[in-house]
Specification:
This protein is an alpha+beta fold and 324 residues long. Helix content is 34%, strand content 29%. Strand 2 and strand 3 form a beta hairpin. The protein is elongated. It comes from Erythrobacter crassostreae. This is GNAT family N-acetyltransferase.
C-alpha cells in the first residue's frame, strides 16, 4: 500500500491511519491493482463472506487510493472482479463524491458484474474560506452567534496547542468523559492519533478555562489546506459560559488567519448547530455491491428492497461543487 500512500487526500487515507485501526483489532484486507501507469488499492475488512470499508466511528470518509489520474476505472474494475470471486457482498460507506470517488466506484463495480445499490448515508458540513480573513468570515455568521461571543468571550480564557502535551490531553479526556457526549469509542487510539498528528505538525488542540478550570476542549487537525474538526466537548455544569462558542471561534481564527486553510471540515452528522459555523453540505454515500451469482447476494438484495420500503427514497449520485 506504500505505493499509493502519496495520494492520501485526508487523515483517513494514510497507511498510518489503517495501522492505528489494526492496532485496535481490525484486520485490514488490502486489494490492489497495478499496471504501467500506476496503482490503485482499497482497504477493507472481511467477515463471513462479506467485505466492507475499513473504518471506524472516527473516520469522516472512506475512498479508494489511486496513485495516478489515468485509467482509474480499469484498476478499480480489476479490484471489483477480484472481490466478486471471493465475496457475496461488498459494502463501501462514507464515500465522498466531490472528488468523483463514489461515481467511479459504483461504475467500476457495476462493470465488473456486481449489482450496485447507491444511497446517501450521511451529511458532511463544510466551510469554504474563499480567501476571507477570520474577521470577514465572522461578520457573515448569524447574529445570535456573534452576540454570544461578544457577551461571553471575556469570561473564559482559551489556549490553542500545536504540539502534543500529556497534561492538556488528560484535560481533554476528562472534559469529554464528563460531557454530554457518548462514551469514547477508543480513547487509546485517539490519543495515539493525536500524537501522530503532533509529530507531523498537524495537531490543533484547543482548551477553554474558567478560573483555571478546563471546561471545554476541541481536537482539530490541519493538512493540505484543510482543517478537520474531530472532537469537541464542554462541561454541562458551565454551559452558561458558552465556552464552546468562544473556543470554536478561537480555533477558526487560528486555522484561517495563521494556518491559511481554504476549507474547514466538520465531519459527519447533520446536527443543527453546525449550520451556524459552516456554509455548505456534501452528501456521503453508501455503495452496496451484491454478487448475484450467490444465493446470499439475492437474500441481501431482498433485505435492501425491504429497507427501502421502510425509508424515504434517496436521491441519485450528484456531484457537489468543489468550492463556493
Amino acid at each position: 500500500m506504500q505505493d499509493v500512500a502519496s495520494c492520501a487526500a485526508s487523515p483517513f487515507d494514510r497507511p498510518e491511519w489503517f495501522d492505528l485501526l489494526k492496532d485496535i483489532g481490525f484486520d485490514p484486507l488490502v486489494v490492489s491493482a497495478h499496471d504501467g501507469t500506476g496503482s490503485a488499492a482499497i482497504v477493507l475488512q472481511a467477515t463471513e463472506g462479506r467485505a466492507s470499508a475499513l473504518r471506524n466511528w472516527y473516520s469522516f470518509t472512506w475512498r479508494p487510493l489511486i496513485a495516478d489520474n489515468a485509467l482509474q476505472d480499469a484498476k478499480l474494475q480489476a479490484i471489483a472482479r477480484d472481490l466478486r470471486a471471493r465475496f457475496h457482498r461488498t459494502t463501501l460507506d462514507q464515500v465522498p463524491d466531490e472528488d468523483g470517488s463514489a461515481t467511479r466506484l459504483a461504475r467500476s463495480f457495476a462493470a465488473a458484474g456486481w449489482r450496485v445499490e447507491v444511497t446517501t448515508c450521511d451529511t458532511n458540513h463544510i466551510l469554504f474560506v474563499n480567501r476571507r480573513s477570520f474577521a470577514e468570515y465572522w461578520a457573515s455568521r448569524p447574529g445570535r452567534l456573534r452576540t454570544t461571543l461578544k457577551r461571553k468571550a471575556k469570561k473564559v480564557s482559551v489556549s490553542v496547542l500545536t504540539t502534543f502535551d500529556a497534561q492538556a490531553w488528560d484535560q481533554y479526556e476528562r472534559i469529554y468523559a464528563a460531557s454530554w457526549k457518548p462514551a469514547e469509542g477508543n480513547p487509546a487510539m485517539l490519543k495515539a492519533f493525536a500524537n501522530q498528528e503532533s509529530n507531523a505538525g498537524r495537531l490543533r488542540l484547543g482548551l477553554a478555562f474558567y478560573e483555571d478550570e478546563p471546561i471545554a476542549a476541541q481536537f482539530w487537525t490541519v493538512e493540505n489546506g484543510i482543517a478537520y474538526i474531530h472532537k469537541l466537548a464542554h462541561l454541562e455544569s458551565h454551559k452558561n459560559l458558552s465556552a464552546g462558542t468562544t473556543l470554536s471561534a478561537a480555533l477558526f481564527e487560528h486555522v484561517i488567519d495563521k494556518d491559511g486553510v481554504t476549507l474547514v471540515d466538520f465531519g459527519t452528522g447533520d446536527q443543527p448547530y453546525k449550520a451556524d459555523w459552516m456554509d455548505s453540505i456534501r452528501p456521503r454515500y453508501r455503495i452496496d455491491c451484491l454478487n448475484m451469482r450467490s444465493v446470499k447476494g439475492w437474500i441481501d438484495l431482498g433485505r435492501l428492497a425491504l429497507g427501502r420500503l421502510r425509508t424515504p427514497e434517496v436521491p441519485e449520485l450528484a456531484r457537489e461543487p468543489r468550492s463556493g
